Q: What sequence folds into this?
């Protein structure tokens, strides 16, 4: 069969092995069948300590010099994206956080309080399955108020009035998550 000018052969067989190239200037690459060997090639070029977890671009470039298979790009991208070591050592894309500034120390008891829910806890005979914890930041005195996990903001305010405000007055600030 005669080749037309400007066309080229993409595949060739040598020693019972199939080779591929995209154009005539490129070297031949071994075509890999859909076997476990593909994962071995990716593993050896990305995961081994000598490879150094180079990331997708370098891993793909290194493998593509010698091998080819359909969907190679997708397979290598998935492997490098799911690599546990790469994910753990990946640099953060977040800007550095500012300096931490501790909260000022209150000058009197119950001037500043912390407030949080503790749940779930085993249900009591009264139907309570959560605890509202209110702690004075200066003395560390705490009030543990039984409640339910269905409590609303309005009910939380009522619990605060009945159990803290009536004994200690209104704090200057309340810290809660």
A:
């Amino acid at each position: 069969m005669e080749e037309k000018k400007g066309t080229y052969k993409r595949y060739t067989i040598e020693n019972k092995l199939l080779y591929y190239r995209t154009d005539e200037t490129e070297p031949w690459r071994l075509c890999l069948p859909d076997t476990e060997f593909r994962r071995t090639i990716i593993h050896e070029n990305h995961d081994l300590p000598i490879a150094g977890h180079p990331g997708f671009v370098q891993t793909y470039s290194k493998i593509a010099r010698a091998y080819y298979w359909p969907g190679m790009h997708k397979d290598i991208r998935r492997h490098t994206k799911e690599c546990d070591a790469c994910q753990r050592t990946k640099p953060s894309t977040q800007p550095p956080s500012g300096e931490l500034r501790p909260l000022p120390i209150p000058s009197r008891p119950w001037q500043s309080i912390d407030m949080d829910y503790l749940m779930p806890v085993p249900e009591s005979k009264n139907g309570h399955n959560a605890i509202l914890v209110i702690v004075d930041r200066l003395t560390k005195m705490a009030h543990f108020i039984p409640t339910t996990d269905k409590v609303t903001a309005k009910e939380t305010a009522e619990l605060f009035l009945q159990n803290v405000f009536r004994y200690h007055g209104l704090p200057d600030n309340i810290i809660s998550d």
